[in-house]
Amino acid sequence: MHSSNRGKKEMQPNEQILVDRFCGGDHSAFHELVGQYKKKIYFLAYDITGDHHEAEDISQEVFIKMFRSLKNFRRDAKMSSWLYQITVNASIDTLRKKSSNPKSSIDEFDQLNIQEGIVSSGAHNFDPVISAESSQIQNHISQALQKISPKERTVFVMRHYNDLKLNEIAEILNITIGTVKSLLFRAIKKLRKELSSYMGNPVLEVPNE
Amino acid sequence: MSDCKKCQSLFLEAFYEEMNAEQKQFFKDHLLVCEKCKSKFKEMKSTLQFMGKRVRPEPGKIFWDLYEERLAQRIEKEEILQPERESWQKRFTRTFTSIPKWAYQAAAALVLIVVGIFIGRIVFLPSPQEFQQASQQPGLTTPQQPGTELVHRTQNYIERSKLILLALVNFDPATEDPYALDLPFQQQLSKELVKEASYLKRELAESDQERLGNLIVDLERVLLQIANLESENDFDAIELVKEGVNNRGILMQINLTDLRRSIRRGKSSLSPEQPSPKPQNF
Question: Which of B42, B61, B69, B71 has the highest number of chain A CBs within 10 A, making it the mutation to test binding with A?
C-alpha cells in the first residue's frame, strides 16, 4: 500500500495553466482540477473519518472552497498541500462534531464494499473462507484505526495510505518532522497493541517481503 | 546520540524508503551488528505490513462518474443562494435608506424617554413596605426608629460581602497571581458571614424586609460556595462562583440597595429636623 518516492508536490505547470484558464473564465479548467484531485481528497477524508458519506461531503466542501478561492490562489503555493490542508481540517472538524454522537467504525456501505473490493481485487480466488477471513482482517484494521487519536490517525493515514512524505505531512499540518514522526511512532505502537492478537495468528501472518 | 537511538529514529524513513545514501548505509551496517534494533524494526515492519492489508471500500464507477455532476449541482445551489441573500440585503438597505433622517432621530429620542421612565420607575420607586413606613412617620427619621438597627446591621453585612464578591469577580487568573486573591482569608470571612446570615434572614423575615431578606439569601448561597472552594487554584470553581454572582445580579442588587439608602439619606437631610437651605413658602 505504501509507495516509494513520488514526484514533488509543487504546483505542476499544467495546474498553473488550469488556474490561469479558470481565472480567465474557463470553468472547464475547474472540472479538470477536480478530476485530478477528487479521488485523493475523497480517500484522505475517508481514511480520517472512516465514513463514506462524510468523506464525500468533505471532498465536495474542499472543491467548493477551491472554486471560491482559486482566483486568489498564490502561484508560489502548492495546490496539493493547500487542498490536503483543507481536507484534514474539515475531516478533524467533522470528527469533533461527531464525537458527541459516535457511530460504528464501519458502516453498511463499507462492509458491502470491502467484500466487493476483496472479490474484485483478484487478490484471492473467490473462496468463502478466505473472503470471510479477509473481511475479518478489514474489520480489525478499521477498528484499530478508530481507536487511535484523530491526530495520530491523520498522520498515519497520510503517510501509509496517501503516499505523503514525512516532510510533506509536516508542511500540510504545520508541525515539525519530529512531531510527525513522534505521532507516527505512537500510532504504530497503539495499532500493534490493538492488533497483537490477530497478528499472532499464523493465518493472518504477513509474509516477509 | 547513541547508534541505537539514531538507528531507531530512522525506522520510519527506512520503512518508507525516505533515507539518503549515507543514512541507508548507516542503517544497514547497524542492523547487521545490533540484534535489538533489528528485532524492533522487524516488529514495526510487520505492523505496518499488516496495516497495508487494508482495502479501502471503492465507491464504484457510478459514484465517480456522477461525482462532478453532484458537485456542480451543489456549487450551483450555493451560488444561487448567494445572490438571493445579497438582493435581500440590498432590499433591506434600500428600505431603510429611504426613510428620512429626522424619523430615526425622533424614534431614538422616544425610545430613550421610554427606557428612562422604565428605569426610573424600577430604581427609584420605593417598595410598598418603605412607602408604608414613610407614610406612618411623616418627615421624621429618628435614630431610635424600630428596625433601624437591623437595617444598619444588614447594610454592614452587605458591605462586607460586597468586598469579598468584588475581590473574586475582579480576579482574573490569566493576568493575576492566585495568591494575590488570598482565598483562605476570603473563605474564612465567607464562613463567618454565612453564620451571620442565618440570624439576619430570620430577623428580616420577622420585620417584613422581604427585599433585603432575599438579597441576604442570595449572598449566603454565593458565600457558601466561596467557603467551600477546595483549592485556590480551582479556577473552574471560581468561574462558577463568578457566574452565580453575575446570573443572580447580586452586585446590581447591592448597588440598588446602596442607591436607595443614599436617596433615603438625601430625603432625611431635607427633613424638618434639619432645615433645608431655602425655607419653602406655603
Answer: B71
Asked if residue A18 belongs to a domain, the reply is yes
Verify whether the Cβ–Cβ distance A2 to B52 is below 8 Å: yes
Q: Does B52 sit within 8 Å of A166, measured CB to CB?
A: no
Domain that residue A56 falls in: 9-103
> Are A117 and B57 an interchain contact pair (Cβ–Cβ within 8 Å)?
yes
Asked whether the whole model's pTM tops 0.90, one would answer no
Please indicate whether, in this complex, the C-beta atoms of B57 and A52 are within 8 angstroms of each other. Answer: yes
* ipTM score of complex: 0.76
Task: Name every residue whose Cβ is closer than 8 Å to that of residue A56 and which is 6 or more positions away in sequence.
Answer: A42, B59, B63, B67
Q: Report the CATH number that the domain containing residue A43 is assigned in CATH.
A: 1.10.1740.10
Q: What is the pLDDT of residues B41-88, one digit of tens each?
A: 999 999 999 999 998 888 988 999 999 899 988 888 877 666 555 566
- Between CA A43 and CA A157 the distance in angstroms is 10
DSSP per-residue letters across A43-99: HHHHHHH--HHHHHHHHHHHHHHHHHHGGG--TTS-HHHHHHHHHHHHHHHHHHHHT
CB < 8 Å to B54, chain A = 1, 138, 141-142, 145, 161
Nearest CA in chain A to B14: A4
Q: In chain A, how many domains are there?
A: 1
Q: From the CA of A15, how many Å to the nearest CA of chain B?
A: 18
In a domain, A110, yes or no: no
Q: What dihedral do alpha carbons A168, A169, A173, A174 form, nearest 10°?
A: -50
